[in-house]
Amino acid sequence: MAQGAFERMDNDMEDMSYEDQAGGNASSKIWNKIGIARSNKQGLYRLATVALGLLCLILLMVIISRQTHGSPAEATADGRFEPQTYDNLSLEIDQLQSSYSDLNRQMALLISSHNILIEEKALLLVRYHNLTDQKHLVETSLHQLLLQKAQLDDRYNKLDSENRQLQISYSNLNSSKSELQTRNSVLTGEIGQLQNRYSNLTRERDDLLKRNAKLDSKMAAGWIFKDSSLYKINSAKKSWHASRDSCLKMGADLVVVNNIDEQKFLLQYKRYWIGLSDTETEGVWTWVDGTELTTSFWRPGEPNNAGDEDCAEISIDASSPSQAWNDVPCSQAKLYICEDHV
Ligand code: 2F8
Ligand code: CA
After folding, report:
1. Which residues surround ligand 2, an ion (CB under 5 A)?
2. What are the DSSP E strand ranges found in 219-298?
3. What's the predicted TM-score (pTM) here?
4. Ligand 1 atom 1, closest CA
5. Where do the domains of the chain lie, and which CATH numbers do they carry?
6. Which atom of ligand 1 is found nearest the CA of 309?
7. Per-residue pLDDT tens digits for 227-276
C-alpha cells in the first residue's frame, strides 16, 4: 500500500503545474493527496506498525479457527491433537512467519527508498526554489530589458526622425550653399569690375584734380586755356632754342599746331616762334614733340631756306590762317608761344 502511495505522489508531482509547485503549499498538496499527514517519518512508522499488527491478528485468527472448527487438525476426545495435525499447523505457522519476515524486509526497503526519495525531494525542492528565484530574476531582467528596449526604440525613432529632418535641412542648406556660391561668384566678378572701375575712376579723379590744379596754377600765371591746351604768350624776344628752353623750364614746350582751328587761334600772334624746325635734316620739318609735319600752313613760297632758315614763325605777312608760316634763321630774337596740355 505504501509503495502505491509513493508512485501516486510522483505522478502527482509530475501532474502539478509549474505555478502549483512554485507556491508555498505545494508539498502540503502532495501529502494531502496521498492521505498522510505532513511528510514525516512518524506517519510512515505508524503505518508500518498498523500493518504488522494486522498481520499478527490475521495469524492468530487463523490459528484459533483451526483449533475451533476441526479442520484437518481436529483434536481427539481427550483434547490432544493428532501428530499429523500438529505438523500441519507448525508448517503453516512457519510459512506465515516467513511471509511476515519477507514483508518486514520489504517494508524496511520501502522505508529506505522512501527516505532517499524524501531527501531527493528536499534537494529538488531547494533546486526548484533556486530555479524559481532565478526565474524571477530573469523575468525581472527581461522586464527591465523590455523597458529599455522600448525606451531605445522610442529614442531611435526620435533620432531617426531628427536624422531625416537634418538630411532635409542639409539638402536645403546644400542647395542654398550652391546658390550662394553662384551668387558669390557673380558678386566676386562684379566686385572685381567695380574695383577696376573704382580704380580707374580714382585714377581719373586724381588726374583731373592734378590737371585742375595745374590749370588753376597756370591760368593764375597768365596762361590761356583753349581746347585742352594752355598757351603762354611770352613778351620777351629770344632765339628759337632759348625760347624753347624757356618753355621747357615752365613744364611746357614751343607750340605744336595740330589743326586749322588751332592755327586760326594762333594767327593773332604774328612774328612768334612755333615749335617747328628742320635743324636735324634740312628739308625735313619736325615738331618739338618728335612728330613729323603732316598738315602745314606755310605762306606761298615758304619754306625757302633763304639764308639758313631752319626754324618756323607765324609770319607778319600771313594772308590767311592756312598760309601763315615762314622759315627764318633760328638765331633771330622773336616772341614765342609755349603750349602745355592738361
Ligand atoms: O628775312 C628773311 C625773309 O625775307 C623775306 O621775307 C621778307 C623772304 N620772302 C620772300 O623771299 C618772298 C623770306 O622767305 C625770308 O625768310
Ligand atoms: Ca623763309
Report:
1. 304, 306, 309, 326-327
2. 224-226, 229-233, 253-254, 272-277, 286-287
3. 0.53
4. 328
5. 2-153 (no CATH), 223-341 (3.10.100.10)
6. 16
7. 999 999 999 999 999 999 999 999 999 999 999 999 999 999 999 999 99
